[in-house]
Amino acid sequence: MENKNNLEAVPAQYTGSEMDVIERMNCSTLAEAVKVFERACTRLLSVNEWGRYAGISAFQLIDPQGIRAERQVQLNDYIRIDIPGPGTQAGMGYDWVQIEEITTESGDKKQTLSMRVRPCAHPLSRKKETAHFLKSEATSSFIITRTGRCVSAEEHARNEVPNTDNGSLYDKGRNFMVGMAAKLGFSYPQWKGLVKVLLQD
């Protein structure tokens, strides 16, 4: 069962499909739980390593000026996603999301780090049309939580609708196919793989 407090950080579902991916680890001591939480947070913020963790798509952190960044993610950064198969023309061969929120909560009993991303335009594009197979209404919320000796890693997708309203005819067709594949659950193994690795030794 999802942690209701965590879901308060997730946008409401109102259109398209949704998905919840959750992995938990019960630690033997509080000190171990804190260590697992801190390691999971470091891995979540190390976007350039996600491809190695999840093993399906490749991810590259891009700063707000459109330059590759070799550091932990920050608010308003972009993530350039290279999924298997041809990319979008609007995204110059890639899919793009932007980090729109990063929040933390820290206490003796509970610690939380959450990050939300949303499909966006290529950072250097003048057209500002969404360069992703999903519309900009879609979000992915990543949440790491420690409650006592239990640590969870979660990904919550909301309002996923294929992006077929703008872009070239090629992009519309490509986005429809990739978006439908995601709706059928083909993106689940990637996010399940990621949240599992976030908690592993």
Describe this structure in words.
By secondary structure, this protein is of the alpha+beta class. It has a single domain, classed as Alpha-D-Glucose-1,6-Bisphosphate, Chain A, domain 4 (2-Layer Sandwich), CATH 3.30.530. The chain is 26% helix and 31% strand. The protein has 5 helices and 7 strands, in the order αβααββββββαα. It has a 7-stranded antiparallel beta sheet. The longest helix has 16 residues, at 30-45. The radius of gyration is 17 Å and the shape is globular.
Question: Summarize this, please?
Answer:
The chain is of the alpha+beta class.
For the termini, the CA-CA separation is 24 Å
Helix content: 25-40%
Percent of sequence in beta strands: 25-35%
Dominant shape: globular
Flag low-confidence runs. none
How large is the radius of gyration? 17 Å
What is the H-and-E element order? HEHHEEEEEEHH
Q: What is the arithmetic mean of pLDDT?
A: 91
Oligomer: single chain
Number of separate domains? 1
Query: Architecture, CATH level 2?
Result: 2-Layer Sandwich
* Largest sheet composition: 7 strands, antiparallel
Derived from helix and strand composition plus strand pairing, the structural class reads: alpha+beta
Number of helices: 5
CATH domain class: Alpha Beta
Quantity of strands, as a count: 7
